Known about the structure:
By secondary structure, the chain is mostly beta strands. The protein has strands spanning 2-9, 14-23, 26-29, 33-36, 43-48, 54-55, 60-69, 75-83, 88-95, 98-99, 107-114, 118-128, 138-142, 144-148, 151-155, 159-163.
Amino acid sequence: LSYDLYIEKTNNQDINFSVIAKQGEEQYQSNEVLETVISTNIDLQMETNTKNTYVTDGEVIEYIIKVNNPNNTDIEGIVIKDNIPTQLTIQSITVNEKVMEQVDLNDLEIYCNVQANSTTVIKVNTVVNYTEGRDKAESISNKAYAEIFGEKVAQTSEITHIIQANEGSQADIP
């Protein structure tokens, strides 16, 4: 017994598919199914509370991710992924001011639904880790993206900070 799956995109929104089961010379075709796929438009932005590019050990950096749904229908099943740099420790996460469960990993996956014509705001508060012997400045970058059904649909621009060398290190001596 074998199966053939036929998928045909009939226009910008419709997909027609069917299955044919084969056994020997016999073939059995399923009913055709027409599925309308509504394209999803998401606007994803990230900003930070720090006005300065340079940060120091112990400094708090808050990343603010805005998920805007300009569509006239709700969008469900959005996954916001953000790989927070390992030089930072996550202090707290909020989604629309609701505190989320603390996670120990810096690979965030935040699941959300966004109502029609509205914006969901995610805030990730982090602190710059102290690194013994940091004798030169270190660049860190952060970028988030949105997925729906495993497909990347939007991403933010990248935010870069430079962690200054520890005080008293050779890099600080003129």
